[in-house]
Design a protein that fits this description.
The protein is mainly alpha-helical and about 210 residues long. About 80% of the residues lie in helices and about 0% in strands.
Length: about 210
């Protein structure tokens, strides 16, 4: 939801700075990869060692680069399929490292906290499926809704939960991971159902193609 409603505002604010960076020769892919490296380093070095508040703050700052790379792409060559691929892959890697680092910390410090561990693992799996469901639908020419919880929503909740956990708020990470896991599952179902509805609509109109399932 944040991606849907916040994109236009971010674009307006970032465009002048993005234009300046393009003139300096900065590329969108360079920003994307820099953000990925910094995010992964912060996740492993801070979340992995239990510095949850610092990790949440640093990773939140790193996400500003993720917002900026799209603006630079639009201000430059308008973006390319390769740039979109780099951005998508980088996001998946960053998500996995962030959640994986929290799993590492939890197992080391609270090995008996099985509920949060299960929720973190569910978030890891479902966050990838959310992204894949959209990509696969687009590849098949199906129209699907954005859904309840996209990447920005998941990231905000996870960082908020981790930061509050680091500040000593009881159950903050448990609540955040539960909301993200349930929201991600709902989003997957929304996208699959939306793809099904679009497929049936096309079939009824006589314009659908048969798509083999693996």
């Amino acid at each position: 939801m944040l991606s849907e409603y916040g994109r236009s505002g971010v674009t307006k604010v970032a465009h002048p700075f993005a234009t300046f960076l393009v003139r300096l020769g900065v590329t969108a892919n360079g920003i994307t990869l820099t953000g990925l490296i910094l995010t992964c380093a912060a996740a492993v070095g801070l979340f992995g060692t239990g510095q949850l508040v610092a990790g949440a703050i640093v990773i939140a700052l790193c996400t500003l680069l993720d917002l900026l790379d799209g603006a630079v792409a639009r201000a430059g060559d308008g973006g390319s399929p390769y740039g979109a691929l780099v951005d998508a892959v980088s996001d998946r890697v960053a998500d996995g490292v962030i959640l994986g680092s929290l799993v590492w910390w939890l197992v080391a410090t609270e090995p008996d906290n099985r509920y949060t561990l299960i929720m973190l693992l569910a978030c890891m799996v479902l966050s990838q499926v959310v992204s894949y469901s959209k990509a696969r639908a687009d590849a098949g020419g199906l129209s699907t809704p954005g859904g309840l919880m996209e990447r920005a929503d998941r990231l905000v909740l996870i960082l908020l939960g981790a930061g509050l956990e680091g500040l000593g708020v009881p159950g903050a990470l448990e609540v955040a991971t539960t909301v993200v896991a349930v929201g991600s599952l709902i989003t997957v179902l929304q996208r699959v159902w939306g793809g099904r509805a679009d497929h049936l609509s096309r079939a009824a109109a006589g314009g659908a193609e048969t798509v083999s399932e693996r």
